[in-house]
Amino acid sequence: MTFPIKLFIFTIFVILTSCKKEFLQRDPGAPITSDNVFSDPVLASRFADNAFNYTLDDFGRMSQGYKGTTGQFCDEAIASAAADSYPFVSVITTGKLLDPTATDVAGVYTRMYQGIRNVNVMLSKMDSVPWTSLQNPNLIKAQMLFLRSMYYFELVKRFGGVVLLDKAPGLADNIDLPRNTYDETVNFILKDLDEAEKIFTTEVFTLPSGLVYSPDVDWNELTLVPPPAQAKSSSNYGRPTTGGVRALRLRLLMLDASPLRNPAGTAAKWRKAADAAKVIINSNRYSLLPNYSALLNQSSSFEYIMIKVRGPRSFGGILSDFIVPPSSGGAQGLLNPTQNHVDLYEMNNGKAINEPGSGYNPQDPYKNRDPRFYSNLIYNDLTWQTRKIQMYDGGTDYQPAAASTTRTRYYCRKLWPEIYKGGTTQGVLMNFIFFRYGEVLLNYAEALNEADGPISDVYTYVNQIRKRAGMPDLPTGLTKDQMRARIHNERAVEFAFEEIRWWDLLRWKDAETIKATVNAMNVVKTATGFTYNVVPLPALYQRDFTPRMFIYPIPRAEIDKSNGIMKQNDGW
Amino acid sequence: MNAPQKIISLFLSFLITCNQLSLHAQGTKNFTNTFSGTVKDENKKPLAGASVEIQEKNTMLLTDANGKFSLIAETKDIAIIKKEGYLTTQLVLDALSDMNIELTLAITDAGEDDNVVIPFGVRKKREITSAMSSYQTAGLPQIPLSNLFNSLAGRISGLYIQQTDNRPGNDNANMYVRGRSSYGSAGARILVDGVLRDFQDMDLNEIESITVLKDAAALAYYGLSAGHGIVLVTTKKGSAVRSAINVDVQGGIQQVDNIIKPLSSYQFANLYNEARLNDNNAITYDTAALNGYQNSRDLFKYPVNNYTDQFLKKNSAIQRYVLSAEGGNNTLRYFILLSYFDQQGILKGANNNDFNSNTGFKRFNFRGNIDFDVNKNLVISLYAGGRSENRLNPGDGINAFLSTLYNTPPNAFPIRNANGSYGGTTDYRNNPLGMITDRGYTSAIDRVLLTSVVAKQKLDFWLRGLSANINFSYDASGTYSAGLNRDYEIYDFNGAAPQLFRTKTPLGYRSAAFTNNNRRNELWAGFDFDRNFGNHSIQASVKGQRYVNASPERLDFRSQGISARADYGFRNKYYIGLVSSYSGSENFPPGSRYGFFPAASAGWVVTEERFLKAGNLLSYLKLRGSYGSAGNSEIGGNRFPFESFYARNTGGGGYTFGTGFSGTPSANESSLGNPLITWETIKTTDIGLELKLFKNAFYLSADVYKARRSGILTDAIIPSILGQTLGTVNQGIVDSKGIEFDLGYSKHLGKFNISLNGNIILTTDKIISQNGQDGIPDYQKTIGKVSGSSLIFLSDGLFNDQALINASPSQAFFGRIIPGDVKYKDVGSVNGKPDGIIDNFDRVRVNKRDLPNVYYGFGTTLAYKVIDFSTQWQGVKGRTIDIQGLVNSGPFSFNQEIYNRRWTPATATTAVYPRVGLTDRGNNTAGSDFWRRSADFLRLKYIEVGVSLPEAFLKKYHIKRTRFYLGGFNMLTITKLDLGVDPEIPGAGRGDQYPYLKTYSVGLRTTF
Predict the structure, then answer these.
(1) pLDDT digits (tens, 9 = 90+) for B395-433
(2) Which of A176, A526, B739, B942 is the most buried if burial means most Cβ atoms within 10 Å?
C-alpha cells in the first residue's frame, strides 16, 4: 500500500470519528429540559396548571394522601387507633410537633415551598413563552399569584413569618436565608392578591370555544350561567376567580384580626376583614345552597367559591380506609367525632342542650337536634344503609377490641355518603371545598361583631346560615360576648369536618376547648331501649396542649440545615 | 475529537499499515531421525531429570544422570526442555546429535509458574510493585458447584466471598475486596479476559488464573471502574509447550441442613392458645381439638402435617462432566472445553406424568480459545465462550413453594380430604401437593455468548519491543422463559358447608417471553512497549477503551477512557511503576466527565543487595509501596444526575378542572440536576513485604494499607425552601485501613509432599462525613462509626412481672407491654437525657454489622506417593446478624426454637426469647441488641482425598494420568450460633429461602 493510500484511509477515519457526537454526550429521550417546556405554549400552560397540584386539596391528607384531618387535633374528632398506627395525629395531640412524622408541620412546609417553586419558575418564564391566542398569559399570571398567596397563607397560618421568595432559587444561590417577619409575610401575600385581583377584574379573553371570559363572567360562572345567556363551558370550573382571590384575602385578614395575631383586639383589623367579606357579599355572585346536607356533593354550585374538582370517588382510599369501618364493609373507621362536638349542636328550638327549656333528654340525646346534626353524624340507632346502627356494647358497630373502629360511638356522615358500603362499585361526588359562601357570611358576622358589636347585619348573616340549616333565628338582644359565643358555635357546627375548626381554635387562642377532656358516649342496650352516658375517653385520646403550639415550629431539619441563620419560633 | 477517539483511530490506521509489512515463513519437508544431546545448567554442569518433550506429540523423557537424552522425532520438530527452577527452553531439532542445551536458573519469583496477570499483560511476580493476589486455578477443588465464587472461598488473600443463596443455579455469592469502604456494600468488579463479564456461571476448567487488584497502583489503570476492587479472571489458552485432553466425570449429592423445625399440630395449637391469652383474647383450640391433634384419630378434622418432611428430600443429586483439549504449535494454539452440569432440586414428589416441577439447574458450557500466528509479527486470537443455562422451577416459583412449606400451620388443612380432593381453607389457599403436581413448571433458559477478538501486531521494524494491540469483545445474552401451567381446586370440609377455593384449569403452555436482551461491547486498543536493555527493563503500555452496554428498553450505558502504565526495572532489584488513567463516564456533566487517576509504586528486592544476600534462612525479601487514586462512577442515584429534567405526562398527572373530571396531561420539573455531581475518589497507600525463608519453602506476603474514600453520595442538606428535592451530593467520606497476610509452606520430603497456605485480613473503617446527621443525638450519629452500623435499642432482659414493668421507663411507644416482653434501656430523649420514656430517642448506633472485619482462610495439601489429601478452611470474625426474623419464623412465628425457649411464667428464669403473641408485638420485634448475635464462624469449605493410578500402568492405555477423588463442600462449621441456622446464610431454610446444602462428591479425572 502506498503512502497516499494510507494517508487517505487515515484521513477518512479521522473524519468519520470526529464528526460523531461526543461518545459520552447522551440525549436521554423521554425526559425533557426546561427549554422544551417553555418554548411550547401548551406545555408551558400545563406546567402552570401543575402548580395547583401542591394545594392542600383533600380531607384526610396526613398520611397516604387520605388519612388524618386537622379536626382530629382538636375537639371535633379523634383517631381511633391512636398512637402506634396513627402517629401523624398523635404527634400533634401529644405536642411532638418537631417529630419528622408530623406531616402537618414538616410535610406541609416542604409541599408549600414546592408549590411556590413551581409558581416562581412559571412567573420567571412568562415573558419568554411564545403564547398564542389559545392562552391568556395574564390570566395564567393571576392564577400563579393566587397560588403563591395560597401557599404562603398555609405557611403563615402555621409558622408565622417565613422566607419569602419571588424567584425560584438555583443550586448556586445562597438559600440559607433568614425568615421574614409575620407582617412582611402578610403584606407579601396581600400584594400578590391585589395584583391577581386586578387582572381578574380587568381581563377579557375569548376562549377557543368562543365563550368570553370577562370580569363579569368568570371561570365558574361560565359553567353556572344558564343558557342562552352564555353557552355552558365546563372545562375551566375550579380555577381561581375574583371571588377566590377575595375569599383567600378574607381568610388572611380574619387570621390577622384574631386574638392570635391581634392581641390588643384592634377593631380596625376586624373592620378590614369585615370589609373584605362585604365585597364578596356585595358582588352578588354567590348564594347558599338550599340543602345543607348535599353541600359537598354538587358538581357546581353558587355556594362554591372555589373547590377542588374531583370526579365521583370509588370505594377505596379515604372512604374505605379512613371513614367506613369494617362493620359497614370498609377497612378502617378511623375518624370518630367526639361527644364534645355532638354537644355543640343545639336543639331544633335554637337552645343549647344545657340551656333551660331546651328539652334535651340525656337518655334520648339524638332527638330534636339541629338538622345539621343529622347531616353530619352517624350515631346509635340511626337507620343507615337499610339497617339500624348498633353503637351499644356488643352491637355490630361498636367493637372496642378492633383497633380501627369507633371509640366514641360516632362516625362522620358528612364525609360518608350513604352509598358507600362494602362491595360498592358506584361513587358520588364528595368535594373538598377551598372556599364557600357560607364561610364568607360567618366571617363577616364574626368580624363585624368584633368591630362594631352585634349590630343588625351580624344577625342578618348568621340567621341566613341558620335558616338554610332549618334552625330558628338567633334570639335578639345578645351581648357582643354572647354573640361571639354563638358565632363560634355556629362555625363549629356549620363547618364540621371541613378542615376549619382547628384553625379557628388556634386563631381564637382557645386552648380551653382544645385541652378540654375528650368525651365519648357510652351506650347500653336495655330491654326497652338504650341508656346513654357521657364518659371521658382513655388518656391515650386526651390532648396535651401547650400555648407554644398556637404557632407551629419550623421543622427541626430546616433550622439545622440553615447554619443558624433561620430562627425557631418562641418556645420550640 | 477527544483523546480516546484519537488513540483508537491512530491505532486502527497503524494496523492497516502494518499488515502489509509482514512476511510469511514456510516449512520444508521433514524426516524421522534419532536425536540426542545433553542438558546443562549455566555452569555447564549436566542436569539430570530435565524433561524433554516434543511439541504436539506424546513423547516425553527425562535426562539421565549425565544430563543426556536420546529420542526419535522428525526434523523441524520442536523439543521443549523443562526443569523446575529453570526457565523452559525450546529448540528446533535439526542437528542429529550432540545438541548442547543450556537451561538458565530462574531467579526467585520470576520462574515459569510465577506469571501474574495484570491488565492486558503478564508480569513475573518479582516485578510486581502493587498489591495483587494471584491464584492459579489448578489448585482449586474439582467439585460440582454451580457457582465458581464458592470454590474460591478462603483461598485468596484480601478477597472475601460470602455465599448468599443455595437454590440450584442461584447459589449466589458476593465478592468483596478488602472489606467495605462505603456506606453500602458493593461487590468487586470482575473482568474476564479483560472485560466486564459474568464469571460465576463459567465452568471451573475454563479458568486459568485469578488476580485480585487491591491497591491504587493496581486499580488506577481502571480509573472510574475501580472503586470496589477488581478481580481479573483469565481463561485458559492453548500452549505450545503443553498438550493434553482431559476428561472429568463427577457425581455427588447435596444434603439439606439447617432447615426450620416445625411444630406438631398439638404443639402449635397449644402455643397458639397461649399467644391468644397473652393478647387478652379467648383461646382458639378447645380441649377436644387439642385431644384430636394429640391422638391423631381424625386427621381430616384435626390434620397433623409436617410439610418439610413430606415435600422435601434429604438429598439431591448433582453431576458434572467436562471434556477439554489443549495444545498447539508455534503457529496455532488452542484450548477447547465442553462441560455439562446438572443440579437437581430437593422437592419430593414433583415428577408426574405430565411434567417434572422439581427445581433444578442444567448448564452447558462451551469454550474455544484459539491463538493464530498469521505471520511472525501478527497474532490474531479468538476467545469464545458460550453457555446455555436452564433454571427449572415449580409453577408458583420455588420461593413461594418453600414459603408455603415453612409458613403454613401444621393443622391448617389435610393435604388431601377424605374424598381425595386437595385440602385448603379460606386463609390457606396454597396446597403444597397441588403446588408441585398441579401448577405446572417454569423454565428460564439463559443463553450467553462471550467473544473476544484479540490482535497483536509487532512493530519491531519501527522500534524494537513496540507492538500494537487490540481487544474487542462482543457479548450477548438473553433469557427465554416458558413452561406449562395448570391450576387446582381446594376444598374445606370442616365448615358448616363445604367450601371451594381456587379455580381448576387444564394443562396449558405458559406465555413464553424473551427478556434481558443484552449486548455488551468493549474495545481496548493501543500500544505496548516491552524491552530489556542490559540491566534495564522497560514495559510500557497506553490503551484507549470504550464500553457499551445496550438493551432495547433503555438508553445504553457507556464509558470510555485511556489507561497507561510504565514499569521500569533495574538489575532485577529495583522496580518502579507508574500507572494512570483518564477515565470518563456519561453519568457526569459535560466538562467534568473525565477524571485523572494516577498512582505510583516501587519495589526493592533487598536480598539482591550485598548487605543482605540470600542465604539458607532468608531466601528472598522484597519491599514495596504504592500510593495513588482510583475512582468509582457507580455512585448510585439517578442516571444523568447533573441534568435538570422536566417530565411531560401525556396521560395525566394534571390538576383537574371543569366538570368532566377527565385526567389532564401535565408538565412538571421532575428533578433538579446537581451540576457538581462527581465520582467517588479512593486514595490508597499500601506498603507490602514479600519474604521467603528456608530455601523458598516458606513464603509470606504482608500488606498494610490505608484508604480514604471521598465524594460518596449522601443526602443533600438543602433547605426545603428550594422547593425541589436535590437527590444527593458528593459529601461523604469513609476511611478504611487494614493489614493482610498471605503465607504458605511447601516442602518435598522424599515421597511426601506437604503444602500449607493461609491468609488473613483485618480491616476496619470509619465514617468521617455523612450528611443528615445534624439534629440527631450524638449517640445516634453515623459519623465515627463503621459503615453499615446498626441503630438499635439496648435491651435489659425480659420483664418477669408487672411490678418491674411499673417500675421501669414507659415502653408504651411500642403498644401493649406485659410480663415476658423485652425491657429496654432508657438512653435519651429530645434533649439527650433519659426521660423515663422509651421511644426512638433511645436507639443507639453500635458498631455491629453483618460484614466481618476479619476474614481468613487456610488449607493443607498432603501427598504421599499416589495418595493426596487436601482441605481448605474459611473463617470470619466480627460478623453480627439479626436473628429476630430467624427465631420468629414459621407460621405465626412459631417453630421448635421459639417453642422450647420462649418466656412463660413457668420458664421465667430460663427463657431466652420473649413471650409469644399474635398481635401488637412491636416491642418484641423492634431492632435491638436482644436479637443480635455474633455470626463468627470457621468452616471447612472443602475437603478432598485423591488417588492417582500409577503412570506405568496407564501408559498401556495411552493415558497420562488418572485420579479418583472424594470431596466434600461446606462439610463442617464451627460457630457459636446455636439456633440451627447457618452463620453465613442465616436465612436459609426459613421464610421462603432454599435450605442450606452440603455437597459430597466423587470424581474421576483422566488426562490423555
Answers:
(1) 999 999 999 999 999 999 999 999 999 999 988 999 999
(2) B942
User: Which range, A16-20, A62-66, B238-242, B585-589, has the best average confidence (pLDDT)?
Assistant: B585-589
Neighbour-count burial for B780-806, b at 16+ CB within 10 Å, e otherwise: bbbeebbbbbbbbbbbbebbbeeeebe
Check if B814 contacts A (Cβ < 8 Å).
yes
DSSP states of B773-814: -TTS-GGG--TTSPTT-EEEEPEEEE--SHHHHHHSPB-GGG
**Rounded-to-integer distance, Cα B618 and Cα B615, Å:** 5
Q: Which DSSP string corresponds to B918-930?
A: SS--HHHHS-BGG
∠ CA B801-B802-B808, nearest 5°, is: 100
pLDDT tens for each residue of B610-659: 888 777 888 899 999 999 999 988 887 778 888 888 888 777 778 888 87
ipTM over 0.90 threshold = no
Task: Test A31 with B666 for CB contact under 8 angstroms.
Answer: no
| Cis check: omega of the bond before A228, within 30 degrees of 0 | yes
d(CA A395, CA A86): 25
pLDDT of residue B1008: 82
Interface test with A, best of B655, B724, B918 (most A CBs within 10 A): B655
Test A110 with B720 for CB contact under 8 angstroms: yes
Task: Report how far residue A268's alpha carbon sits from residue A16's, in angstroms, rounded to the nearest whole number.
Answer: 78
- pLDDT of B182: 75
Exposure of B623 by Cβ count < 10 A (0-12 exposed, 13-18 middle, 19+ buried)?
Answer: middle
pLDDT in tens, B880-890: 999 999 999 99
Say yes or no for a CB contact (<8 Å) between B648 and A237: no
Residue spans of alpha helices (H) in A201-333: 219-224, 242-257, 267-282, 318
Residue with cell 378502617: A332
* CB within 8 Å: B1 and A6: no
Distance from CA of B717 to the nearest CA of A (A): 6
Cα B867 to Cα A416: distance, rounded to the nearest angstrom = 84
In angstroms, rounded to a whole number, what is the distance separating the alpha carbons of residues A379 and A410? 5
Q: Give one word for A237, left, alpha or beta, with left for phi > 0 and alpha for psi -120 to 50.
A: beta
Chain A residues whose beta carbon lies within 8 Å of the beta carbon of residue B555: 26, 28-29
The residue among B271 and A229 whose pLDDT is bigger is B271
Which residue has 375574583 as its cell numbers? A242
Model pLDDT, residue A18? 44
Helix (H) or strand (E) holding A148, with range, is helix A137-159
pLDDT at residue B483, as a whole number: 93
For residue B369, the SS3 value is strand
The model's pLDDT over A233-257, given as tens digits with 9 standing for 90+, comes to 568 888 999 999 999 999 999 999 9
pLDDT 10s digits, B765-819: 999 988 877 777 889 888 889 888 889 999 999 999 999 999 998 887 777 789 9
CA gap A492, A75 in Å, rounded: 10
**A167 to chain B: closest CA residue:** B722
Kindly list the residues from chain A whose CB atom is less than 8 angstroms away from the CB atom of residue B781.
Answer: none
Chain A's closest residue to B722, CA to CA, is: A169
Instruction: Tell me whether strands B466-487 and B513-533 are parallel, antiparallel or unpaired.
Output: antiparallel
The set of cell numbers assigned to B111 is: 520462574
Cβ–Cβ under 8 Å, residues B499 and B426: yes
User: Is B10's pLDDT higher than 70?
Assistant: no
Q: Pick from B5, B639, B655: which is nearest to A17 by CB?
A: B5
CB-CB under 8 Å, A43 with B2:
no
Give the pLDDT confidence score for residue B6 in this predicted structure.
55
Closest chain A residue to the Cα of B716, Cα to Cα: A561
State the pTM of this model: 0.79
